[in-house]
Design brief:
Function: Component of the exocyst complex involved in the docking of exocytic vesicles with fusion sites on the plasma membrane.
Radius of gyration: 60 Å
Distance between the termini: 171 Å
Region (Disordered): 1-21
Keywords: Exocytosis, Protein transport, Transport
Organism: Biomphalaria glabrata (Bloodfluke planorb)
Domain Exocyst complex component Sec8 N-terminal: 51-147
Number of strands: 3
Length: 961
C-alpha cells in the first residue's frame, strides 16, 4: 500500500467508525468529496468497492436490527401513522372553528345593543343579592352581640357593632326598612362603652386575687396587619392593631405594632393582660377611650372604698363573728389581717391599672400616625398615671387608719412625750450624806407640765393647729364623701402596734415607686405627736396609781401573781406595776422599731421617777423626826469603810448572782471565818460600846413593818434590776456598729449611746439601793443586839439575892425582837439572804456580852448564874432561828463561868492549857473580880495583871515556836 493510501486509511476508518453516528447527508458529502479528489480510475474503483462493501455490511446490520426490533418498529410506525392522522383531523377542525368564529363575529356585530342591556341587568341583580346578604347579616348582629358579650368576647362584639353601624350609615343608608334596626344598633354602640368601662372596673377592683401569674403579652404576636374596617370576620381570631413602644419614647418613628387577638374558644379572662388590652382596644375602636380613662379616674375613690368594705366583710366572715359586734371588742389581729388583705389587693389594683395605662399609652401615641382611626386624643387633665393610683390608695388607707387609730379622740386627749433623757443621773450616796438635802416639794409622779420636757404654750398651740389642719386634710381626702367604715375591731391608738410592721413594709414599696409617701407622713405625725404622748400618759397613770399614797411601797403582790412571775418571795406591787409598764414599752420598741429610741427614753424617765420615789421612801424609813439624824444602821451602810468591808466578806460575795454559790468552807476555813467575824464584831463594838451612854430608841427601827418594807424593797429592786440588766444587754449601741454595717441580726435598730448609758446608770442605781437595803437589814439586826444587850451590863444588878435568877428583861426583849424579825424575814427574804443576815450573829452576841464585862460594877455567884441564863436563853433562840448550834455563845458562857474561880486559878489554867480569850478580856475579868470581892489590895491586882502579861507572852512565844 502506498503512503497516500496509508494516509487516507485513518480518515476512512474514522469515517467508517462514525457512519453510525453521522447523518446520511454528511456521509454522502464525504463520499462525493473523496471521489472528486481521486486522480485515477483505479482509485475511484477501490473507493466504490469499499463503499459497496460498507453498504452491504450496513444493510446486513440493518436487517439484523430490524429483525431483532421488529415489534418496536411496528409499534413506532403505527404510532406515527396515528399522529399523522390526528394532526390532519385537528387542522380540519381548526379551519372549521375559524370559519364559525368569523360567522359569529358577523352575527354579534348586528346584536350588540341587546347584549349590553342584558349585562347591565346582571350587574344590578348582583348588587341586589349583595345588599340582601348584608341585610341578613345586619339582622343577626344583635343575637351575635348578646352571645359575644355573654362570653366576654368584647373585641368581636365591638368590631361587629362598629362595622354594622358603619354599613347602615354607608351602603345601607337609604334602606328605610332598616331604619328602626339602625336606631337600635346605634343606641347599642353608644352604650357599649359603658359595658366596657364597667368590665374594666370589675377587672381592676372586683376580681378576686389571681391564682395565676400574668404572662405579659402571651397572646400577642409582633406584626403589622391591616384589617379591613368593613370586612366581616367569622373566624376564630379578630386581629386589632395597637402601637408598641420602645422604652418611654413617644416618637412615631419608634412605634411598632402587635396584634391583640381574641380566641373565641377560650375564656378571655384567663389572661388578664390580654383581656385588659382587648377592653382598651374595644374602647379605642368605639372612640370612647378618653371617656373610659376619665371614668376610671373619677371612680377610683368610690371603687377603693368599696374594695375596702368588701375586704372588711371577708375578714368578718373568716372570723365567724358578726361585723356589727366586732367594733366593740379589742381585736387588733383582725385589723392586721384586714390591712394585709387590703395591701395585697392594692398591689393587684395598681398592677392592673398599670396594664391599662400601658395600653392607653401605646394607643394614644398612634394619634399622629393614624389620626382618623384613633379617635379623640386624650387631654392632659383626663389622663392619669400610676402615681395617681398610689396616691389615692394612700388617701383611702389614711382615712381608714384614722378611724381605727381613733385619731380625733387621741388628739383631743394627747399628752406630750418626753423629748430626751438629758438630766444627769443623781448619785445615790447623796441620800445618805450627813447633811440632809433640802426636802423636795411633793408633786405628783410624772406630772409633765412640771418637767423639763414640757412644751411651751406657743408650741402646744402650733401642734393643735397642725392636727386641725390634718383633720381638714382628711376631710378633703374623703371623710366628706360619706364613706361609712364598718370596723373589725375597737378603734384605739394602740392598734398601731399590731399593724406597724406590715404597714411599714407597704410604705417602703410605695416609696420605691413615688419616692415620698403621704401615708408615711401621716403615720409619723400620729406616732410622734399623738401616740407617744398617750403611751406616756397611760404608763404614768398606771405608775401613779401604784405609787400614790403612804402605803404604796408596802403593798405586795398576791400569791397568784407571785406564782405567775415565778419569784420565791413577795414583791412590791408598785415594782411589778412599773416592770409591767416597762415590759409594755419594750414590746412597743419591738412593735415600732423605728421609734425605739423614743420608747427607751420614755423607759429612762419612768425609771428615774420611780427611783426617786424609792429613794424618798427609803429616806422616810431611815431618818427620824424632823432633824437630820438617821438610824445607826443607815449611817453604817453609807459609811465607805464599813460598807467596803461588809461587801468583801465571803458571805456577801456568795449572794452575788454571777457567783451564785453558797460559802465554800473549803476555801474559807472556820478559823478564817472566825477571824472575819471577829473583825466585823470589833468594828461594830468599837463604834457602839466605847461610850457609857446607851443607844437611843429613835436610832433603831422598832417597827417590824418598816423592816418588812425594806426587805420587800430589796427583793423587788434586785429582781427589777436583773430584768432591766438583761434588757440593757440585749440592746445594741450605735457606736458598736461598723462604718459599713447596715443590718443587725437583732430585731431592734441600734440605740443612742447616751440613752443606753443613762439606762445602765439607772440599773446600777437600782442595784445599789437594793444592796443598801440588804446591808441595812444585816446591820439593823446587829444594832438591835447592841440596843438590848448593852443595858444588860450597864443597868442590871448581878450582885442581887438568890431568887433573882431569871434572864434579864432586855434579853427577853431581844429574843422576842429577833423572833419577830426572823418571822418577818423568812416571809420576805430568800433563804440565802436570811442566812446572810443571821449568820455569825451568835459570835457578835458573845463578843458583846464578853465586852460588856467592863460595865458590870459587881457580880456574885447568883449574878454569874443569871448571866449564864441570859446567854443560854439567847443561844436557844438563835439556835431556833439559824437551826445550828451557836457554839460561839458557849465561849461567852465559859468566860463568865471563870468568875467562879479566883484569878490565881484562872491564871494557872491559862498557864497550863493556854489562853482561850484575849489579854484585854482576861484583864477585865480580873478587874471585875476585884470589884466584886472586897479585901483585895491594889497591889495584888497589879501583880495578877503582871503575871497575866507574862503568861500570855509565854503562850504567844510557844505558839510561834
Amino acid at each position: 500500500m502506498s503512503s497516500s493510501e496509508k494516509s487516507k486509511t485513518p480518515s476512512q476508518n474514522q469515517l467508517y467508525g462514525q457512519s453510525g453516528k453521522d447523518s446520511s447527508s454528511a456521509y454522502l458529502m464525504s463520499i462525493v468529496q473523496t471521489l472528486s479528489s481521486s486522480a485515477d480510475f483505479e482509485q475511484r474503483e477501490k473507493e466504490k468497492t469499499r463503499i459497496e462493501k460498507a453498504y452491504r455490511e450496513s444493510d446486513k446490520r440493518l436487517g439484523e436490527l430490524v429483525a431483532n426490533n421488529y415489534q418496536d418498529v411496528t409499534q413506532i410506525l403505527k404510532a406515527f401513522n396515528g399522529m399523522t392522522k390526528s394532526i390532519n383531523e385537528s387542522r380540519d377542525k381548526i379551519r372549521k372553528i375559524k370559519e364559525d368564529l368569523n360567522s359569529c363575529k358577523t352575527l354579534l356585530h348586528f346584536k350588540r345593543d341587546e347584549l349590553r342591556k342584558l349585562w347591565k341587568d346582571g350587574v344590578e341583580h348582583k348588587a341586589v343579592l349583595s345588599m340582601l346578604e348584608q341585610v341578613e347579616q345586619i339582622k343577626e348582629v344583635q343575637d351575635k352581640m348578646n352571645t359575644y358579650i355573654a362570653n366576654k368576647h368584647y373585641l368581636h362584639a365591638t368590631d361587629m357593632i362598629v362595622q354594622a353601624v358603619a354599613m347602615l350609615e354607608g351602603p345601607l343608608y337609604g334602606v328605610d326598612a332598616l331604619r328602626e334596626l339602625k336606631s337600635d344598633l346605634i343606641n347599642i354602640k353608644e352604650r357599649m362603652h359603658e359595658t366596657l368601662i364597667e368590665e374594666l372596673s370589675k377587672q381592676i377592683y372586683e376580681r378576686s386575687l389571681p391564682s395565676f401569674s400574668l404572662q405579659r403579652g402571651s397572646q400577642m404576636r409582633l406584626s403589622r396587619k391591616d384589617a379591613s374596617v368593613w370586612g366581616w370576620s367569622d373566624g376564630l381570631d379578630s386581629p386589632r392593631r395597637a402601637p408598641k413602644l420602645e422604652g418611654s419614647e413617644m416618637s412615631s418613628s419608634k412605634i411598632s405594632y402587635y396584634e391583640v387577638k381574641e380566641n373565641l374558644n377560650s375564656n378571655p379572662q384567663d389572661n388578664l393582660e390580654n383581656f385588659i388590652a382587648i377592653l382598651t382596644e374595644s374602647l379605642f375602636a368605639l372612640h370612647k377611650l378618653p371617656d373610659g380613662v376619665e371614668r376610671l379616674k373619677l371612680s377610683m375613690k368610690g371603687s377603693l372604698n368599696k374594695l375596702i368594705n368588701t375586704a372588711t366583710q371577708q375578714i368578718a366572715e373568716s372570723s365567724g363573728q358578726q361585723l356589727d359586734s366586732m367594733v366593740n371588742h379589742v381585736q387588733p389581729k383582725y385589723l392586721n389581717e384586714l390591712l394585709k388583705l387590703i395591701f395585697e389587693q392594692a398591689r393587684y389594683v395598681a398592677k392592673t391599672h398599670q396594664i391599662f395605662l400601658n395600653n392607653v399609652f401605646r394607643l394614644t401615641t398612634s394619634v399622629s400616625a393614624d389620626h382618623e382611626s384613633s379617635g379623640m386624643p386624650l387631654l392632659s387633665h383626663v389622663l392619669y398615671d400610676i402615681k395617681d393610683v398610689w396616691s389615692e390608695i394612700q388617701a383611702r388607707l389614711q382615712i381608714l387608719l384614722s378611724q381605727y387609730l381613733d385619731v380625733r379622740n387621741t388628739m383631743s386627749s394627747r399628752q406630750q412625750a418626753p423629748s430626751g433623757f438629758d438630766e444627769p443621773s443623781m448619785d445615790i450616796s447623796q441620800y445618805f450624806s450627813k447633811k440632809r438635802p433640802a426636802k423636795p416639794k411633793k408633786v405628783s409622779l410624772f406630772r409633765f407640765d412640771a418637767s423639763q420636757h414640757a412644751i411651751s404654750v406657743s408650741s402646744a398651740r402650733q401642734q393643735i393647729q397642725q392636727f386641725e389642719h390634718l383633720f381638714s386634710f382628711q376631710d378633703a381626702l374623703g371623710l366628706s364623701d360619706n364613706w361609712h367604715i364598718v370596723k373589725v375591731c375597737k378603734p384605739d391608738a394602740f392598734n398601731i402596734t399590731a399593724i406597724y410592721k406590715p404597714l411599714r413594709s407597704f410604705i417602703v414599696e410605695v416609696e420605691e415607686i413615688m419616692e415620698t409617701s403621704a401615708l408615711q407622713e401621716f403615720i409619723t405625725d400620729f406616732v410622734q405627736n399623738a401616740f407617744l404622748g398617750q403611751v406616756h400618759a397611760k404608763v404614768s397613770e398606771n405608775i401613779e396609781a401604784a405609787t400614790r399614797g403612804f402605803d404604796a411601797l408596802r403593798n405586795i403582790i398576791d400569791e397568784k401573781t407571785r406564782r405567775e412571775l415565778g419569784v420565791p418571795r413577795p414583791l412590791l406591787q408598785s415594782t411589778v406595776t412599773v416592770d409591767s409598764s416597762i415590759q409594755e414599752l419594750q414590746d412597743l420598741m419591738h412593735d415600732l422599731p423605728n421609734y425605739a429610741d423614743q420608747f427607751l427614753n420614755m423607759i429612762c424617765n419612768v425609771l428615774r421617777d420611780y427611783k426617786d420615789k424609792c429613794n424618798s421612801a427609803y429616806r422616810d424609813i431611815v431618818q427620824h423626826g424632823s432633824d437630820e439624824k438617821r438610824i445607826i444602821s443607815s449611817m453604817w451602810a453609807k459609811d465607805d469603810d464599813i460598807s467596803r468591808f461588809l461587801r468583801s466578806l465571803p458571805s456577801w460575795r456568795s449572794l452575788q448572782p454571777r457567783q451564785g454559790k453558797e460559802l465554800d468552807h473549803t476555801i474559807c476555813s472556820e478559823e478564817e471565818m472566825r477571824a472575819l467575824n471577829s473583825k466585823e464584831a470589833i468594828i461594830l463594838i468599837s463604834n457602839l460600846s466605847t461610850d457609857e451612854s446607851l443607844i437611843p430608841q429613835q436610832e433603831i427601827i422598832t417597827d417590824v413593818t418598816q423592816m418588812r418594807t425594806v426587805a420587800n424593797v430589796h427583793e423587788s429592786l434586785e429582781w427589777f434590776a436583773n430584768r432591766l440588766d438583761l434588757f440593757a444587754d440585749s440592746l445594741t449601741p450605735q457606736s458598736s456598729l461598723a462604718p459599713l454595717q447596715e443590718e443587725l441580726p437583732t430585731e431592734l435598730p441600734p440605740i443612742s449611746d447616751k440613752t443606753l448609758q443613762s439606762l445602765k446608770q439607772l440599773v446600777q442605781e437600782f442595784k445599789d439601793l437594793a444592796e443598801i437595803c440588804l446591808l441595812l437589814l444585816h446591820l439593823e439586826v446587829r444594832v438591835h443586839c447592841f440596843y438590848y444587850l448593852l443595858p444588860v451590863a450597864k443597868q442590871s444588878n448581878y450582885a442581887g439575892p438568890i431568887d433573882d435568877l431569871d434572864p434579864d428583861s432586855n434579853v427577853l426583849k431581844l429574843n422576842k425582837d429577833l423572833s419577830g424579825m426572823e418571822e418577818m424575814m423568812t416571809q420576805s427574804l430568800q433563804p440565802k439572804k436570811f442566812k446572810y443576815i443571821f449568820e455569825s450573829l451568835g459570835y457578835l452576841v458573845a463578843s458583846i456580852l464578853i465586852n460588856s464585862v467592863q460595865f458590870l460594877n459587881k457580880i456574885n455567884e447568883n449574878g454569874i448564874k443569871k448571866m449564864c441564863r441570859n446567854i443560854l436563853a439567847i443561844q436557844q433562840n438563835l439556835t431556833n432561828i439559824t437551826l445550828t448550834r451557836e457554839s460561839d455563845l458557849d465561849r461567852a458562857r465559859h468566860f463568865y463561868e471563870l468568875l467562879y474561880m479566883n484569878p490565881d486559878e484562872v491564871l494557872n489554867a491559862v498557864a497550863e492549857k493556854g489562853p482561850q480569850f484575849t489579854l484585854g478580856e482576861y484583864q477585865e475579868l480580873i478587874k471585875l473580880y476585884h470589884r466584886s470581892f472586897a479585901g483585895n489590895p491594889v497591889q495584888v491586882q497589879d501583880a495578877r495583871m503582871q503575871r497575866l502579861h507574862s503568861v500570855m507572852e509565854k503562850g504567844q512565844n510557844e505558839t510561834l515556836a
